[in-house]
Amino acid sequence: MTDEMLGADEAAFIAAARSEDTAQFAVLTERYRHELRVHCYRMLANYEDSQDLTQETFLRAWKKRASFRGHATLRTWLYRIATNACLDFLDKRNDRTPVPVEVPGATAELRYLQPYPDRTLPEDPQESAVARETIELAFIVAVQYLPPRQRAVLILRDVLGWPASKAADALELSLASVNSALQRARVTMREQLPDRRLDWRSPATHELSHDERAVVKSYIEAHERNDVDGLMLLLRDDLRFAMLPVGASASTAESAVDGWVRGGLFQPGYDDWRCIPTTVNRMPAAALYLRTPDDPEFRLLNIAVLHIVDGKIAELTGFGAADKPWLGLPATL
């Protein structure tokens, strides 16, 4: 492919690589940071890891700059590097798979799971990178049940819509291996997401529904009133609850609420709450702020991420939030 046949970005990248122009290299690659970070997050389910691996992608791209010939677009080349950086990361870690839990109805949990702040998503709502159903926690968790290379194949083929030949080239696999991995991955995803739509390439909604907004409002009001009964009314009987990274979990509303009460919720010292609505992973959420008797301010404690079905909370995933400034939430109220 001659320079005259290259796209503008590809030609500019090759010119920057030849001239060792680090500033121009940064300009050309930085525009892909948000979508590459989402890609790494889908692979790893951890926002901080995805930040690190996105940076690793740019470092590898600079080191490999002389190998770029424009046979693929710059975006495709960067995705290939990012995917393999994530696979290398996973090959070295033995703590990045679901772990069994002793809770009836729950198979495993991801203690390394972190929420993804919506403010850092790519801005273009048409990008497959921001499709709501492929950034929600249920999808991110389900993908973690796949072996890493199956995970990569599913994301490249079914989420990003790459043809099999392109995915095979990126992963240095045969077409038969890619097709086989995709079929096995789809079976696992159907098992993990039995009630969810699995055609992720078709248009998906991005905005919260009226029901979702109303339930978040009621959830916040119940918290601020210390209203256990009101909170209970918002939960489906078969609620799935997890609190990360501590590993607390429950598979019914009754067991979840019992655990919260035993842990001191709404008791002295844990009864002065202020909450604000927010979103993470394109999902409704509430940021929970607690004021203790010896503190004049409400301090960010947790974020509760809600999956709402027919006006009730079907899944509640809590995360410690005080140590996550990247969520973009105020530290105090």
Automatic annotation (TrEMBL):
<dbReference type="InterPro" id="IPR039425">
    <property type="entry name" value="RNA_pol_sigma-70-like"/>
</dbReference>
<comment type="similarity">
    <text>Belongs to the sigma-70 factor family. ECF subfamily.</text>
</comment>
<feature type="domain" description="RNA polymerase sigma factor 70 region 4 type 2">
    <location>
        <begin position="139"/>
        <end position="188"/>
    </location>
</feature>
<dbReference type="GO" id="GO:0006352">
    <property type="term" value="P:DNA-templated transcription initiation"/>
</dbReference>
<keyword id="KW-0731">Sigma factor</keyword>
<comment type="subunit">
    <text>Interacts transiently with the RNA polymerase catalytic core formed by RpoA, RpoB, RpoC and RpoZ (2 alpha, 1 beta, 1 beta' and 1 omega subunit) to form the RNA polymerase holoenzyme that can initiate transcription.</text>
</comment>
<dbReference type="InterPro" id="IPR036388">
    <property type="entry name" value="WH-like_DNA-bd_sf"/>
</dbReference>
<dbReference type="GO" id="GO:0003677">
    <property type="term" value="F:DNA binding"/>
</dbReference>
<dbReference type="Pfam" id="PF08281">
    <property type="entry name" value="Sigma70_r4_2"/>
</dbReference>
<keyword id="KW-0238">DNA-binding</keyword>
<dbReference type="InterPro" id="IPR014305">
    <property type="entry name" value="RNA_pol_sigma-G_actinobac"/>
</dbReference>
<dbReference type="InterPro" id="IPR000838">
    <property type="entry name" value="RNA_pol_sigma70_ECF_CS"/>
</dbReference>
<dbReference type="InterPro" id="IPR007627">
    <property type="entry name" value="RNA_pol_sigma70_r2"/>
</dbReference>
<dbReference type="InterPro" id="IPR013324">
    <property type="entry name" value="RNA_pol_sigma_r3/r4-like"/>
</dbReference>
<dbReference type="InterPro" id="IPR032710">
    <property type="entry name" value="NTF2-like_dom_sf"/>
</dbReference>
<dbReference type="GO" id="GO:0016987">
    <property type="term" value="F:sigma factor activity"/>
</dbReference>
<protein>
    <recommendedName>
        <fullName>RNA polymerase sigma factor</fullName>
    </recommendedName>
</protein>
<feature type="domain" description="RNA polymerase sigma-70 region 2">
    <location>
        <begin position="29"/>
        <end position="94"/>
    </location>
</feature>
<dbReference type="InterPro" id="IPR013249">
    <property type="entry name" value="RNA_pol_sigma70_r4_t2"/>
</dbReference>
<keyword id="KW-0804">Transcription</keyword>
<dbReference type="Pfam" id="PF04542">
    <property type="entry name" value="Sigma70_r2"/>
</dbReference>
<dbReference type="InterPro" id="IPR014284">
    <property type="entry name" value="RNA_pol_sigma-70_dom"/>
</dbReference>
<dbReference type="GO" id="GO:0006950">
    <property type="term" value="P:response to stress"/>
</dbReference>
<keyword id="KW-0805">Transcription regulation</keyword>
<dbReference type="InterPro" id="IPR013325">
    <property type="entry name" value="RNA_pol_sigma_r2"/>
</dbReference>
